[in-house]
Design brief:
Blueprint lengths: L5 E7 L4 E4 L8 H18 L2 E6 L5 E6 L9 H14 L1 H14 L5
Antiparallel strand pairs: 1-2, 1-3, 3-4
Helix pairs in contact: 1-2
Amino acid sequence: MYQDSVVLCSASKYTEKYYLNPDFEGLPDLVKRELQIMCVLFTEDVGGIIILEYDEDGNLNLKTHCDEDDILYDEIGSVLKIKQLLREKEELFEQLEQYYKVFFLQED
């Protein structure tokens, strides 16, 4: 069904908006809410943009970037915050990967 990366969700400090890919509206409300809170708090803490996306193998990747002229973006903080999220939300991310592999990649 999908061949390249697929965005699950993202948040931007610049537009102060959160985006959830409509393809994932079937996720439980609690999971959708947790993703929203996590992404928005991330951008509030370090600035920039955070994107959660699946690669072609169904692995969930957390990416962050900023505008070139954004002097308030905390680059070191973003790396540390990503590591913290990967540690604290490990179970959630594993379940999201499994969900994607079963429902989108049609794996067993």
